[in-house]
Write a structure and sequence with these properties.
- The structure is a single chain.
- This protein is of the alpha/beta class and about 290 residues long.
- It has two domains: about 150 residues, 3-Layer(aba) Sandwich (Rossmann fold), CATH 3.40.50.300; about 120 residues, no CATH class.
- It contains nine helices and nine strands.
Length: about 290
């Protein structure tokens, strides 16, 4: 029996996750009263039960104290029940945007201010987030990327690290990305912008990639960046970090930064220990 508790921030993607898990063959139940959780687990864990995979959604909208939820789950662990906790998270900017687009009211925004509701909810969910087996930050995840991540965890049963790594290219002329954790400047590398036949291309084109990577400095920088990243990532995981944005910038964000971001992404992806996504912020001019 595989039993997954799906919880997290309102607007973080819990409903979407439950639909995806249902497609993966999970029997999904949403927001049982706290008093029924143990009885439900007892029933579905019986030897003659035909259900082998269950996902139970829990959130603050259930009109019940989440302190009670965490206490019940702790007691169930002590009684020998096996379950995993998946926590869906997102940054404040993404959550506010989703609420505005859906025109929904945050369940804890008593004064109508979404930001205040989010802050209050984070405090309430802090304890269960710390005890979660999986934390997925959906802030910049596409639907297909989220499905791939769930497939990796719950279908392929691959080793999981809660750290979601985003490798991002950008142009300094448009500003450093506000959500970046690590920023690297590659403006010291040869610039394809000044080569007429390369100027209209980007770092996604082989001609630009060859030009940039043929520089000895590019290969040396990439190797040192990979070494440092491989050192940092497990230490970030150890400290409980769930999301890391590595931003690589050049002047306009179209040639050098895109090339180096592609190369770092490829190497981290091949390593296979972390969930990695690639994002070119300014490849077609500044749009964010």
């Amino acid at each position: 029996m595989r039993f997954v508790i799906v919880t997290g921030m309102s607007g973080g993607g819990k409903s979407t996750v439950q639909k995806m898990l249902e497609d993966f063959g999970f029997y999904c139940v949403d927001n049982l009263p706290v008093s029924l959780i143990e009885k439900f687990m007892e029933l579905i864990s019986m030897p003659n039960s035909e259900i082998t995979k269950v996902a139970l959604g829990l959130d603050v909208r259930a009109g019940q104290s989440f302190e009670d939820v965490t206490d019940v789950l702790a007691q169930l662990k002590e009684k020998g029940y096996n379950f995993e906790i998946l926590f869906m998270d997102a940054n404040e900017e993404a959550l506010i945007k989703r609420y505005k687009e859906s025109r929904r009211v945050h369940p804890l925004a008593e004064d109508g201010r979404i930001a205040e509701g989010i802050k209050k909810e984070r405090r309430i969910l802090e304890k269960i987030k710390k005890s979660a087996d999986y934390v997925i930050d959906s802030s910049n995840l596409l639907t297909r990327e989220l499905k791939s991540e769930l497939d990796r965890i719950f279908v392929q049963n691959e080793e999981y690290n809660s750290l979601m790594v985003t490798v991002m290219s950008f142009g300094f002329k448009y500003g450093i990305p506000s959500d970046s954790d690590l920023v690297f400047d590659v403006r010291f590398l040869p610039n394809p912008y000044y080569i007429d036949e390369l100027k209209p291309l980007t770092g996604n084109d082989k001609a630009v990639q060859d030009y940039v990577m043929n520089s000895p400095e590019s290969e040396t920088f990439l190797q040192k960046l990979e070494d440092m990243t491989q050192f940092l990532l497990p230490n970030y995981v150890k400290e409980g970090k769930y999301r890391l944005v590595i931003a690589i910038g050049c002047t306009g964000g179209q040639h050098r930064s895109v090339t180096l971001a592609n190369e770092l992404y490829k190497r981290l992806k091949e390593d296979g220990h972390y969930s990695v996504k690639l994002y070119h912020r300014d490849i077609n001019g500044h749009t964010v």
